[in-house]
Write a structure and sequence with these properties.
alpha+beta, YefM-like fold, 3-stranded mixed β-sheet, 4 helices, 20% strand
Length: 71
């Protein structure tokens, strides 16, 4: 569900309850700025951002070596 910040501010209790059932994306001036998630649906911020960046079949040792060579 996508909701603007003013709506969330005016009806916070409603969206707090809904967050236990579904993810709520909060927008400001049409841009996504935050998410409300239930505690059972929470994921790590870092892992959420890395999804799709590192291929599933990546060789960790080769990536580490490559990174060290660039330093």
């Amino acid at each position: 569900m996508i909701v603007n910040s003013t709506e969330v501010q005016n009806n916070f209790g409603k969206y707090l309850e809904l967050a236990s059932q579904q993810e709520i994306v909060i927008t400001k001036n049409g841009q996504a700025v935050a998410r409300l998630l239930g505690t059972d649906k929470t994921v790590s911020f870092l892992s959420d951002r890395l999804v799709g960046i590192i291929p599933e079949n990546a060789d960790e040792d080769a990536l580490k070596t490559e990174r060290l060579l660039r330093q």
